[in-house]
Amino acid sequence: MTDKYLRRVLYIDLSKLKFWVEEREDLFDKWLGGTGVAVQLLKEELPKGADPLGPENVIVFAVGPLVGYYPLASKTVAVFKSPLTGNYGESHAGGRSAIAIRMAGYGAIVIKGASRIPIYLAIHNRKVFFRDASAYWGMYSSYTVGRVIRENEMGAGHRTIMRIGRAGERLVRYACVVTETYRHFGRLGLGAVFGAKKLKALVISGRTELPVKDKQMYREVYDEIYERAVKSPIMKKYHDIGTPVNILVLNDIGGLPTMNLKDGKFEYAENVSGEKMAERHLGRRVACAHCPVACIHIATWREPYEDEPYFYKTKFVSYDYEPIYSLGTMLGIKDSEGLLRLLEQVEVFGLDAMSTGVVLAWTTEALERGIITEKETIIKLEWGNYENYIRAVQYLIDQPNEFYKNLAMGVEHAAKVYGGTDFALAFGGNEMPGYHTGPAAHLGYLIGARHSHLDGGGYSIDQKTLGQELSPEEMIDKLIAEESWRQILSSLVVCFFARRIYTPDVVARALKPLGYDFTPEELEKLGEDIYKEKYFLKVREGFRISQLRIPKRIFETPSAKGLIKEDVIKKALEYFRKKMNID
Fold first, then answer.
1. 583 has pLDDT over 80
2. For residue 84, what pLDDT is reported?
3. Coil, helix or strand for 187?
4. What tens digit of pLDDT does each residue of 410-454 get?
5. Cβ partners under 8 Å of residue 152, min gap 6
6. Strand order in the sheet with 199-205
7. Could you state, in order of their start, the residue ranges of all structural domains in the chain?
8. pLDDT for 257 beyond 60
9. Which of 448, 446, 499 shows the shortest CA–CA distance to 90?
10. In angstroms, rounded to a whole number, what is the distance separating the alpha carbons of residues 75 and 250?
11. pLDDT tens column, 343-369
């Protein structure tokens, strides 16, 4: 049975400036929490065919039963209708958001409607305050918004502060929501949904107690998970170098997308590698709440003031593999400080780093090919010129002409307007993640419930089978099995980096002292059910396998497993369609 706080759902109507709480034990007992519960709440509250930027769109934040109890149960799941793809949207973020929601006494928060004026929500324990955010609307930097709210709200040390930048205000379809400065609800445009609702920020804090049914058993399971977390060589890798350790690994096998995937290797990969970043720029490491690993790497560098050459300002920005890929290798940027300056500009405005990099890479090649001209781009975009890319990011926000307005809609939309769809790297409308490892990676982007590399881990399937050729059926079966289990992890809101620690057996034992009774087999079946529920929602909102566009570029550039065959991808998609009984 769920505890009395986890099963509480906070509903907030921005149109009416009202809030209320409902006990939803029915949802949390059956679907655990996180993704499992969030999908059900979205199905209940989201009208079929809703406009993603209309007041009828719904945002659901949900956490799971392990939050506050076990290491690495540190994520919050957000689900909504994506303004980028027009379909199911899901994004996860670390930081303090999960523990803040849990300690405020809720398992989920449902936000609907839209405010007439800019506001931010302050949720402190059992109270919700609707604050006027007119003074924050239009602020240049998302960092500044966070600092000002910090000074005016209670709960220091326990709270979360989620906020959007100008990208969300300007309804850039791949705007993100920044939380705790260095973490994000990225991908699929949650920031634009906030912007459309005139919701500038969300502050949450609380002091709720967390009950334990069997304290001795809990202590034993906790110690086991903690020991595995701090002694795991994989976790040590995430602590020492972080995910940028992938740069050189993928470059060596030819799986590192470079200059809009014209190549799978980057000549200057070492300059922007995780090892070189740590050597030149690493300032400190930060951990999400209740995580002993600290995989968040913060880079630092100095910049002189324009009018005072002997006075410097120190800059900080978090970096991971995906931003280095999208804003570095995809744009041919070989200067690590230039890359960090570009990344900082993306962070200031609250843009999704992956989508921004892919959009700019497509623009650079389109300009190179003469499909568009400098009349559209205003400045010359060329591989490696980070200063002009920084200016282009500013144009994405200001949208000074029709071209940048279209570019703010995503690469899929821009390519349909101007041409160049063959090298427009979007899958299901979502810009490509940083893995050109082989067919399983790209199939994962195509069929994953949110078109993400984190859905089924196709990149990992490719890397584990280098030198082997899997059949289309084998790849699809592996992708479905992995994505199904990840539904359990994201319902518990366990970090995917810990997926080898939280096995079905460990999860079953971790839940038991909290009052849940699941066998490993029951958990695996539940994961399959949640996966099917997601796809039911996707199909309801118009998703069709037959309408997926496959970028031809992925067949032209050798991957880590050699050239990808188009017929293999098409056979795999047909097998998936029949197996899932869709389309």
1. no
2. 98
3. coil
4. 999 999 999 999 999 999 999 999 999 999 999 999 999 999 999
5. none
6. 127-132, 119-124, 199-205, 160-163, 177-179, 183-185
7. 8-205, 243-401, 430-580
8. yes
9. 448
10. 27
11. 999 999 999 999 999 999 999 999 999
DSSP 47-93: PTT--TTSTT--EEEE--TTTTTSTT---EEEEEE-TTTSSEEEEEE
* Closest C-alpha to 40, from 70, 62, 67, 66: 62
Percent of the chain with pLDDT over 90: 94
CATH, range 430-580:
1.10.599.10
Helix axes 142-152, 336-349, angle to 10 degrees: 50
Which pair of tokens denotes residue 563? 């050239």
Single-letter amino acid code for the residue at 454: L
State the architecture of 8-205 in CATH terms: 4-Layer Sandwich (3.60)
Burial of 340 (0-12, 13-18, 19+ CB in 10 A): buried
Give the contacts of 240 (CB within 8 A, at least 6 positions apart). Answer: 278
Q: Spell 549-577 as b/e; 16+ CB within 10 A means b.
A: bbbebbbebebbbeebeeebbebbbebbb
| Burial tier of 288 (Cβ tally within 10 Å: 0-12, 13-18, 19+) | buried
Going by pLDDT thresholds of 50, 70 and 90, the confidence category of residue 306 is confident
Distance from C-alpha of 133 to C-alpha of 457, rounded to nearest angstrom: 40
pLDDT of residue 1: 56
CA distance 176 to 536: 25
CATH T-level assignment (fold) for domain 243-401: 1.10.569
User: Six-digit token pair at 441?
Assistant: 């990676």
According to DSSP, residue 243 is labeled G
Tokens of 244: 């940028």
